[in-house]
């Protein structure tokens, strides 16, 4: 969990900070906030890349290939002596890249293993940070109040102070200094373990410890069916709909700018890949940056809706049942159908319709709701998350349990061909999910309780087999 704030300005109090040696050999000092922040970002990236230079990757021949031809094995103490320009960097700033780089690297390895297990592209391994292409950032540990202290000034403003001191031989302009980062806040700052400054975007993020959701015992259970028409449908008849009008407007703007980017690449007479490799124009770069901003805005809107919705589920219900959807498998391309009469040609396989469905499922981020519920229910002992096998939940009549694809006349209408029961299709599926989840908790569905994602093939036996990622609170 984190809280993002906006940086308004930065100033330095106390001594002028030693920034290293100039070209003529004279020491450089500064108390300019902008220059000091850029100096901290450069020092943080320098230490991060030094740690990253010791990593290696394994090629196709199972050989270890180092990322750098000259690994940097120096400690922080040695680096301060050999590189005077980082000698005055606060300790909790220059030490933070060690843990962050290590976590990022091994998280990428775990993510690649998971992608390979689910037959997806492994993805790229993280590389070095670039001064030109990556945002200028740095982190500082809080360490029980040792540094990165936050002080509330008034209702909407606060100050984060980072303290340090100049090295022994360079104290002509003072010894101790304090960097004061003035931020704009919109809510009380919760307890945090560190801060992360993005000087390119002028933001400061507090890394918070997740807190349990305040709730009372309700004794209620709910089934949730995620879909395309409705982002989520509950077994009690309620629906969650994303702001489709706003998202559609963002999508149209993204496509318009992408067409403009394509025209600029075509006018160059090169392929798109070659055009990007040789260096794009300033207009192309501006369009690309704007597209990235629009994608980020769209992601923030969807995340905000799901965060509020899942918090409400955990607060109001003690048992939440959801589908264990494999979204990567659901959004795969349709299998090609070769034409037996015409070699080299293919028959229609419905890929055009599947492309639109895949786009809708990706826009609704079907897996995000479940992932949020997973970590929120772990923080709350009185709320249980049950993940149900999604097979046939949308084709099964909740009244007579008859399974037939014809039961679902359309996206919204459900009418059983056996008993004539009518209901909203998503609500009927949510009722089936709730019943399967309660049966699993009562151990009457014949499925044993799985303990990890790796046990997927075993736990998917049976109509109502379930797949919890980790043991949940019963």
General description of the model:
The protein is an alpha+beta fold and 474 residues long. The protein is 36% helix and 21% strand. It contains twelve helices and 20 strands. The strands form six sheets. A seven-stranded antiparallel sheet has the order 6-10-11-1-9-8-7. A hairpin with a 5-residue loop joins strand 2 (17-21) and strand 3 (27-30). Helix 5 runs antiparallel to helix 7 (282-316) and helix 7 crosses helix 10 (366-379). The longest helix has 35 residues, at 282-316. The protein starts with a strand and ends in a 15-residue tail after the last helix.
Which labels suit this protein?
alpha+beta, 21% strand, 7-stranded antiparallel β-sheet, single chain, 474 residues, disordered C terminus, globular
In short:
With 474 residues, the chain is an alpha+beta fold. It has helices spanning 33-52, 76-82, 91-94, 96-117, 244-267, 272-278, 282-316, 327-330, 351-364, 366-379, 425-441, 456-459, and strands at residues 2-14, 17-21, 27-30, 56-58, 64-66, 137-141, 149-152, 157-165, 176-184, 192-198, 203-208, 221-226, 232-234, 239-240, 319-323, 337-338, 346-347, 384-388, 413-415, 422-424.
Write the layout of secondary structure elements.
Blueprint: E1 2-14, E2 17-21, E3 27-30, H1 33-52, E4 56-58, E5 64-66, H2 76-82, H3 91-94, H4 96-117, E6 137-141, E7 149-152, E8 157-165, E9 176-184, E10 192-198, E11 203-208, E12 221-226, E13 232-234, E14 239-240, H5 244-267, H6 272-278, H7 282-316, E15 319-323, H8 327-330, E16 337-338, E17 346-347, H9 351-364, H10 366-379, E18 384-388, E19 413-415, E20 422-424, H11 425-441, H12 456-459
Parallel strand pairs: 12-15, 15-18
Antiparallel strand pairs: 1-9, 1-11, 2-3, 4-5, 6-10, 7-8, 8-9, 10-11, 12-13, 13-14, 16-17, 19-20
